From TrEMBL:
<protein>
    <submittedName>
        <fullName>Uncharacterized protein</fullName>
    </submittedName>
</protein>
<dbReference type="Pfam" id="PF20704">
    <property type="entry name" value="KH_NucS_shadow"/>
</dbReference>
Length: 130
């Protein structure tokens, strides 16, 4: 299961639209490693003039790796994180998540990061089974 949904949030979903901040809080509480990783790259980006900031450190355990995969594989979770942090997320391997400024999405840097070539160049034997 990806998220631990509080009964009040489940009830809200059953009866109508869900508040974005309530959903983000559910993600934060359910997937703390993913939340910390995305928070960190978003903060790194905000504190720099770079077009993007990324995480290159693999998760310490398979449980944390699973959190990151679940967060970034879900359109709803990923887009809510992007709205919350005001970034565009990009993802390679099982751990390399990057936060891009929305203005950089049409840049060569972003296109290189999300390209097939970028994916292949970011491979290594130790990450093969991640």
């Amino acid at each position: 299961m990806s998220l631990t949904v509080p009964p009040s949030l489940l009830h809200a979903a059953e009866t109508g639209p869900v508040d974005d901040e309530a959903f983000v809080a559910c993600v934060r509480d359910s997937l703390p490693y993913a939340w910390q990783t995305v928070s960190r790259v978003a903060a790194d980006l905000e504190s720099s003039d770079a077009q993007f900031a990324d995480n290159v450190v693999p998760p310490p355990t398979e449980a944390e790796r699973g959190q990151l995969l679940r967060a970034l594989a879900s359109d709803a979770i990923r887009s809510s994180l992007e709205r919350h942090f005001g970034v565009k997320l990009a993802f390679q391997n099982c751990h390399r998540v990057a936060a891009f400024r929305p203005s950089a999405v049409d840049s060569d840097t972003y296109r290189r990061f999300i390209s097939m070539r970028g994916q292949l160049l970011n491979q290594s034997p130790e990450l093969r089974d991640c």
